[in-house]
């Protein structure tokens, strides 16, 4: 299920109409329309962004009502989550996003391995479960992710959370910690395309480079001869993984449905990134528009 990734933002007048009723506090709202499933309830209207600045109406000593603008916060960095099925191209898009927007790339799997290697408390707890062949409990991984998101670089530069949360319980836990993205990017690729991409993947054990027999074949016969296939890169096993992914992502989307951008991941990587880049650019532009309107609101007190 893919959809267009164009966004449109409607600029409101810098002078909101004054109601005839007695002066009350009211939000200065920016109408938000989109071809994508994003609404005014999205996090770009949350209390944690500059977009929620209030214009408060109070009685003037001289009689007429005028506008007093609340404090305008510094524009916050982007907070993005991205999800996609195996072989959806998520890794490639994460590289492109972090390169252009200079976000801190956070992947739960990499984070888990780093915590274990650093012998942190969370890492030791996780290793106990892994040594027993058990899954690491959500509360341990969520805590790792939360602590990484709270580090100064993530707070200052913004972050891209890769492939996490994977379940509703993880999403709820992050929300309870106050972690809320501005945008949830979902890469949509038809199942037959995903199966084709996975089954054709091969690994060069010498260089670690990933090839695809059809889309990115090895440069020489020598390399081709030493390529290996992951044990779970078979059609049967990838379909099981895809089934699990679809179940999980549906539950997660219930938490982020108002800020989800569905991107057609079946096209070239450049075209996929163009869709994502367009959504992120429009989001940043919406913030700028809102800030300008707030400033104009202040001028017209």
UniProtKB/TrEMBL annotation:
CDD domains: ADK. It catalyses: AMP + ATP = 2 ADP. One of its GO terms (cellular component) is chloroplast. It is an enzyme of class 2 (transferase). Belongs to the adenylate kinase family. The keyword Plastid applies. GO terms for molecular function: AMP kinase activity; ATP binding. Monomer. It is found in: Plastid, Chloroplast. Keywords: ATP-binding, Chloroplast, Kinase, Nucleotide-binding, Plastid, Transferase. It comes from Anisodus tanguticus. Its EC number is 2.7.4.3. This is adenylate kinase. Its main location: plastid.
């Amino acid at each position: 299920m893919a959809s267009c990734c164009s966004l449109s933002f409607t600029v409101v007048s810098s002078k909101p109409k004054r109601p005839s009723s007695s002066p009350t506090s009211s939000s200065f709202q920016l109408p938000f329309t989109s071809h994508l499933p994003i609404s005014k309830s999205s996090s770009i209207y949350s209390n944690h962004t500059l977009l929620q600045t209030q214009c408060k109406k109070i009685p003037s000593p001289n009689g007429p009502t005028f506008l007093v603008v609340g404090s305008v916060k510094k524009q916050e960095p982007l907070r993005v989550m991205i999800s996609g099925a195996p072989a959806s191209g998520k890794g490639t898009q994460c590289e492109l996003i972090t390169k252009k927007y200079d976000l801190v790339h956070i992947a739960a799997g990499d984070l888990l391995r780093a915590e274990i290697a650093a012998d942190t408390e969370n890492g030791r707890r996780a290793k106990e479960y892994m040594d027993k062949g058990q899954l690491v409990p959500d509360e341990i991984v969520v805590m790792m992710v939360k602590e990484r998101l709270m580090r100064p670089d993530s707070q200052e530069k913004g972050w891209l959370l890769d492939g996490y949360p994977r379940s509703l319980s993880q999403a709820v836990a992050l929300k309870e910690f106050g972690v809320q993205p501005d945008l949830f990017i979902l890469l949509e690729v038809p199942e037959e395309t995903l199966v084709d991409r996975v089954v054709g993947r091969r690994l060069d054990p010498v260089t670690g480079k990933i090839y695809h027999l059809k889309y990115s074949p090895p440069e020489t016969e020598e390399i081709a001869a030493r390529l290996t296939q992951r044990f779970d890169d078979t059609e049967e096993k990838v379909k099981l993984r895809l089934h699990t992914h679809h179940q999980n992502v549906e539950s997660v989307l219930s938490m982020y449905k108002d800020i989800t951008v569905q991107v057609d991941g079946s096209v070239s990587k450049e075209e996929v990134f163009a869709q994502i880049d367009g959504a992120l650019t429009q989001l940043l532009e919406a913030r700028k528009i809102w800030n300008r309107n707030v400033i104009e609101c202040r001028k017209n007190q």
